[in-house]
Amino acid sequence: MSDNIAGKVVVITGASSGLGAAAARHLAAAGAKVVLGARRLDRLQALAAELGLPAGAVVETDVTDPAQVKALVDAAIATHGRIDVILNNAGLMPQSLLEQGRLDDWDRMIDVNIKGVLYGIAAALPPMKAQKSGHIINVSSVAGHKVRPGSSVYAATKAAVRMLSEGLRQEVKPYNIRTTIISPGAVESELPQSVTEPEAAKRIQDFYAAYAIPAESFARVVAFAISQPDEVDINEILFRPTSQDL
Description:
By secondary structure, the chain is of the alpha/beta class. The chain has a single domain (9-233), classed as 3-Layer(aba) Sandwich (Rossmann fold), CATH 3.40.50. The protein has helices at residues 18-29, 41-51, 66-80, 103-131, 152-171, 198-211, 216-227, and strands spanning 9-13, 33-38, 58-60, 85-88, 134-139, 177-184, 236-239. Helix 3 (66-80) runs parallel beside helix 4 (103-131).
């Protein structure tokens, strides 16, 4: 599936592992020019070496800092002359009951899951408007559609991503920019490792061990959205493991 992917400049946040790394590998194999951002520079550099990327295609990026996100997009433009796609993928999933009052976890999720997406939009939108083309892909979750005890704040942040993305979709029509929301179920990643409450961590880890599908499944979904003809705008994709009932 390389139609309409080959040659595109794709910026990916949270690219050092899991879903972001899988997307980078898949899109690079399809001929995309991927530009990778994440906090763990050593992992980014290893992935860049594996994919044979140029030096400017790796930028240490904390998505809670808007200047760093802008620097990532600027690096893509400096290296390749444009930006065609941004995949706002970085996210955290620390879960706990609201009564436990884990304020630090709440703040981290809001900063990464909501503000990180907003900063990605803010960085990518001006050059995409100027070139009158582009594609903004924001990662939500099944939790953005369905909430359960212990996931209230995480679900709220992922529902916010959906609302932001739908508002964005309507606003960018004059600029020929496409938008996609991707809402995965249990897909192999490091998300369970971000759960700090012991009982919730055990529950999530057991759930992922039983149900999670390979990260490549997410990469194929991303490629499907990007590969559509320019006149086709895939606005939302919700997918789960076949065995996942939640």
